[in-house]
Amino acid sequence: MPFKAGLELTELQNMTLPEDDNISNDSNDFTEVENGQINSKFISDRESRRSLTNSHLEKKKCDEYIPGTTSLGMSVFNLSNAIMGSGILGLAFALANTGILLFLLLLVSVTLLSIYSIYLLLMCSKETGCMVYEKLGEQVFGTPGKMIVFGSTSLQNVGAMLSYLFIVKNELPSAIKFLMGKEESFSAWYVDGRILVVTVTFGIILPLCLLKNLGYLGYTSGFSLSCMVFFLIVVIYKKFQISCYELGLNATSPILSNSSEHEHMCKPKYVIFNSKTVYALPTIAFAFVCHPSVLPIYSELKDRSQKKMQLVSNISFFAMFVMYFMTAIFGYLTFYDNVQSDLLHKYQSKDDILILTVRLAVIVAVILTVPVLFFTVRSSLFELARKTKFDLCRHVVVTFVLLVIINLLVIFIPTMKDIFGVVGVTSANMLIFILPSSLYLKITHQDGARLTQRIWASLFLALGIMFSLVSIPLVIYDWVQSGGSTEGH
């Protein structure tokens, strides 16, 4: 039966559209000719219906709807786990090089901007139906989008692995010396951090990474978060145990022999600008990156909605803001200008069981967390290469080569601030600022009703680009000027 010229669009949408190959040119089947002219209204309606159908098919090929089963409280715990990481160890160093007021301003700004970027990410997920970051990038920007998202998330995970292994390199020698009853100045090849990190990597981490399934290691994230909470408690407690005056007496610097100079050093600074200030923002950004985990957590949320996931995000970021600020301020007020980029390394474990315990807890936590991150990077690499079928030889070779590269980087990178700096100005900036805003602007580019939201997203994108243009040259300039300073490590 031929379509009628006056058929409404809503009726057309409810009908089944034939495949393009089956569309006949016979005017009796699909068009109506009036006085030798094809009815333009029908053509318009048919094209609109086909456009809607194709749009629906594009959305369907991203992700099917699967109901979540995770409660709001557990989702908050999971997202807090995703946010929390080794970045907490570098925040006191960032504060020491910005001052209390400037650091607080930066911390509040990054927290609010991160929450806004989660909002944009959730909006993009709602519009496309995608629950995986790489799929979202591919859906909006095609293969280049998928590659950019893969590169950013992989660099972020590699940076996290580097920082974790750097903790092993810094902290394990001190723990072993304490257990052996040796002084901190004791030096032997078997307590060299570089040798120990290689030994741990290929003795413990490699066998775990070679397993086909690392699902059970996901439970270590809870242990890792517990270790960081324990670390915060110890930092607060030690502030009231360690006197800045005692630190001055133990220092060998001639500057500190002058009591007035020492008194000045033990006073908190509120606004500071120096060559290391440039690392503050990248370090804070690195500490707040959790974006690759947001969509998976969202997909598992029970009775999920954008509003409910935004609440999960707000609670998690506020909790981490409090924890980060307390760690930074108490760490800074303990060591002041002497604080290092790895705050835990500044505490001496000699005859101090509490410090030894927190050191061992953090070391065990990061060792068990590295395989989980490694598994994610390797799986993404195989997915990108379309080599998803398990092959033992390829599995072993890729694992070994990646671990060798990561260990070489850990051995030759002088300080953790370099890791935080590089990852902060690259992948963290992409994941927090540039990608969410770019995806949102692309998805809504024809939606005139969202002009205000698009203006804000454009400003957010501009901020991310400006952050890259300013921070990257300054980090490179500091490398050249400092000549690879090791901060006494």
Notes on the protein architecture:
With 489 residues, the protein is an all-alpha fold. It has one domain: Sodium/glucose cotransporter, CATH 1.20.1730.10. A two-stranded antiparallel ribbon has the order 1-2. The longest helix is centred in the first third of the chain and has 48 residues. This is S38A1 protein. It is found in: Membrane. GO terms for molecular function: L-glutamine transmembrane transporter activity. Keywords: Membrane, Transmembrane, Transmembrane helix.
The CATH topology annotation reads as Sodium/glucose cotransporter
What's the CATH first level? Mainly Alpha
Question: How many strands, which pairing sense, and closed or not: the largest β-sheet?
Answer: 2 strands, antiparallel
Cα Rg: 27 Å
Ends apart, CA distance between termini: 83 Å
What fraction, in percent, of the residue positions are helical?
55-70%
The strand line-up of the biggest sheet is 1-2
Shape: globular
- Count of helical stretches: 19
Pattern of helices and strands: HHEEHHHHHHHHHHHHHHHHH
CATH superfamily: Sodium/glucose cotransporter
Give the low-confidence spans.
1-60, 252-257, 484-489
Number of strands: 2
Mean pLDDT: 80
The secondary structure category is mainly alpha
Question: Strand portion, in percent?
Answer: under 5%
Total individual domains: 1
Membrane topology: Multi-pass membrane protein
Keywords: Membrane, Transmembrane, Transmembrane helix
GO molecular function: L-glutamine transmembrane transporter activity
Subcellular location: Membrane
